[in-house]
Amino acid sequence: MIPELSRSSVIIREFSRVKETLRAMQAAGAGSLQVIADFDSTLTRFAHNGAQVPNTHNILEKKWLVNEDCSEKVMELSNTYHPIEITTSLSMEEKMPHMVEWWTKIHELLIQQKVRKDLLSHAVKESSVILRDGYKVFFDCLLERQVPLLIFSAGVGDVLEEVIRQNHVFHPNIHVISNYMDFDHTGVLRAFKGQLIHSYNKHEAAQSHAAGLKELQGRPNVLLLGDSLGDLKMADGIAEPQNTLTIGFLNEQVEERKEAYVNSFDVVLVQDETLDVPNAILRNIQTCMFQIGLLK
Ligand SMILES: Nc1ccn([C@@H]2O[C@H](COP(=O)(O)O)[C@@H](O)[C@H]2O)c(=O)n1
């Protein structure tokens, strides 16, 4: 049905479930569909030319935005907390307090550094952040079919928006839930707004924020894209979900985490830097809708 699903980088636990879910989504059409996607290492590439691609926090941690001492602290924090974030030997509940600590410390550091709003655009331009191959088709096709795209990120919302703006795909069907910066009247960072979002509390933000978005209501079918097991909670704000297809990007520590990912996501993409599979799924849903339209 979808040749991209036969690639060697694709692992599917239960093919019959994927097939049935896709059939149901096709039958219901684009009017019933919403797409929920994580941002860092999901819509952006994880690696490019052998180097790791920066995430939205990393973009802010550049030496000309923060001082050397801060850069070192950022690195130490990452070395301490990132292994906890991705280990399979701790449960999500056990990881939570560590994630709160990491995000709180990093946000405090950024506030101390008095990051300036007017430098964000330049920081993104100078960074090596890159969206996954096939991103334009993905964003444009959702716009064309008026399918809402909820980007749900534990990264930094202001930076995320700038990345998609500079790639010319910040379309009106996009909604972002993320950590946004609060600048004072001179444009200097003084706080982060609202409830902190980290990798493992997205269910809380889903229930308090996403559930209230009227553009997403009446769309019970969900295509969910993420790179962390915590991303599976991004659809928790949907009142009565009908069909959900989850796609997980397994970017690093592949052998250690493969089993957990295959048991949790419907489709696992192993070190796949493209959006080919989500695009093929969307194309498949649309082609079918188009055929139904022709038959009417
Ligand atoms: N100080 C930090 C905090 C978080 N990260 C990484 O950013 C990712 C953001 O989350 P998404 O929901 O957009 O995936 C997260 O996975 C952390 O690894 C960081 O690098 N530095």
Topology:
Layout: E1 10-12, H1 15-28, E2 33-37, E3 47-48, E4 51-52, H2 56-60, H3 68-86, H4 92-112, H5 120-126, H6 135-144, E5 149-156, H7 157-166, E6 174-179, E7 181-183, E8 189-192, H8 202-208, E9 221-226, E10 243-250, H9 254-264, E11 267-270, H10 276-295
Parallel strand pairs: 2-5, 2-9, 5-6, 9-10, 10-11
Antiparallel strand pairs: 1-11, 3-4, 7-8
Bound molecules: the ligand Nc1ccn([C@@H]2O[C@H](COP(=O)(O)O)[C@@H](O)[C@H]2O)c(=O)n1.
Residues 38-41, 55, 57-58, 78, 82, 85, 102-103, 106, 153-155, 199, 228 line the site of the ligand Nc1ccn([C@@H]2O[C@H](COP(=O)(O)O)[C@@H](O)[C@H]2O)c(=O)n1.
Q: State the separation between the terminal residues, measured CA to CA.
A: 23 Å
Enumerate the strands of the largest sheet in spatial order, edge to edge or round the barrel: 1-11-10-9-2-5-6
Number of helical regions? 10
Low-confidence stretches: 288-296
Proportion of beta-strand residues: 15-25%
Largest sheet: 7 strands, mixed
Q: Write down the CATH class of the largest domain.
A: Alpha Beta
Number of domains: 2
Task: Outline the structure in words.
By secondary structure, the chain is an alpha/beta fold. It contains 10 helices and 11 strands. It has 2 domains: 3-47 and 130-295, HAD superfamily/HAD-like (Rossmann fold, 3-Layer(aba) Sandwich); 50-126, Orthogonal Bundle (DNA polymerase, domain 1). The two termini are 23 Å apart. A 7-stranded mixed beta sheet has the order 1-11-10-9-2-5-6. It has a two-stranded antiparallel sheet with strand order 3-4. A two-stranded antiparallel sheet has the order 7-8. Residues 288-296 have low confidence and may be disordered. It has helices spanning 15-28, 56-60, 68-86, 92-112, 120-126, 135-144, 157-166, 202-208, 254-264, 276-295, and strands spanning 10-12, 33-37, 47-48, 51-52, 149-156, 174-179, 181-183, 189-192, 221-226, 243-250, 267-270. The protein is globular and about 55 Å long. It comes from Kryptolebias marmoratus (Mangrove killifish).
